[in-house]
Amino acid sequence: MDTAQIFDDFIKNLKVQNEENIENRFGLITRRLNIDFYDSDSKSDHGLYVGSYGRDTAIKGISDLDLLFELPDSVYTRYNNREGNKQSQLLQDIKSSIAKTYPQTKVRGDGQVVVIEFNNDIIEICPAFRESDNSFTYPDSNNGGMWKKTDPIPEQEKITSSDIECNGNLINLCRIVRAWKDKNGVKIGGLLIDTFVHDFFMSKPEYKEYSLENYDLLIRDFFFYLKEMDDDRKYWYAPGSNQHVYKKKSNFKNRAKRAYENIIEAIDKKSNNTVYEIWRKVFGKSFPYPKFIQESSYNYTDKEEYIEEVYPVNITNRVSINCEVIQDGFRPALLRSMRILSKNKKLLFYIETTDVIEPYEVVWKVKNEGELAHRKNMLRGQLIESNEKGNKRREASSFAGPHNVECYIIKEGYCVARDRIDVPISNI
Questions:
Q1: Phi and psi (nearest 5°) for 191?
Q2: How confident is the model at residue 288 (pLDDT cuts 50, 70, 90)?
Q3: Whole-model pTM?
Q4: Residue 4 maps to a domain
Q5: Which of the listed residues 150, 183, 204 is the one where a domain comes to its end?
Q6: How do residues 395-420 score in pLDDT, each as one tens digit?
Q7: Which residue segment(s) compose the domain that 62 sits in?
Q8: Which parts of the sequence belong to the Adenylyl/Guanylyl and SMODS C-terminal sensor domain (predicted)?
Q9: Which terminus of the chain faces fewer neighbouring Cβ atoms within 10 Å, N or C?
Q10: Residue at a domain's end among 282, 297, 312
Q11: Helix, strand, or coil here: 405?
């Protein structure tokens, strides 16, 4: 494997591809709000990209775009003098304004922002008022309403300047970590990812000079850094603004440990063609896999389906799956507590925990691997539905080899959570 070329291609694959569409929608939304609040038809004045796109750390397939629109101070005075939940009233008026441009699209208020739900992506608009220090005050309509502060400009400036100091490695790594988040269903915010990556480089300056030839080692050492995070720590300081960034109920540490172990294996098998499949376990389809090598693999089937090709992926929630192993005459056991599985067992895959609120749809994927699965023409890999009540999937351990099952939770047209469980079946 040519490490430098592979990681150069990987980084290129992660770049946002739909800038023209994003710019067009930004212009239409900003123009509408300028007409209603400034008597201007400018497509750029008072609008600001925030979030990962504003920090330039977003990746291809971004499905949630954050925009901030700066309102005149007179608007703040007018709403702040009202009775009741003035923040909710402001958001409702912003919603009504945007609905003039998108009358056939679902536009709704959501606590602190106005959300526009398109078919394949979501845009969140935060109305805000600029303060003398260039921070912004924005409305929060929750719990009766209040004003809160955000400070995105110094965060953007700090990420940009630090990336220059790190020879482009900082933004590259921020994007790579997002690919891991989406592939492995990691519930972690974009600003927290960027904060972790920034702190990693600042605390370990030797990595600032790493070139593409060493990116496998750079990524390995970052995931070691991530998996060793202090379990008791609740928040970090955002670069530039020093605002608190909370981890909340994130599952990032366990999945970082799994990624680290896979990366160690990939580095050990660097000269083996199976290395691409290992990297893809960590980063998904964006990681390059030369076609002639992929098609020569026992695990390749052109019938395999991928969730990101059917639904936009926007991981905002957690899900953990398990499997009940059943055999006549024996007590049921849980797969995650077993090192290896014998043949001829009944398997019932189910959602053990999730924080996704019903209703939602569940999609499964069963993938068999290895020479025996290839010979039997049983590689599978299609996206399939539950076949038992309660969003469960019943299978059987019919032949030996490595197998895995993935579960995806679909909410309002988006894949919001995913998990995977390995099913190693022995010849016994």
A1: -70, -35
A2: very high
A3: 0.95
A4: no
A5: 150
A6: 998 888 999 999 999 999 999 999 99
A7: 16-150
A8: 302-426
A9: C
A10: 297
A11: strand
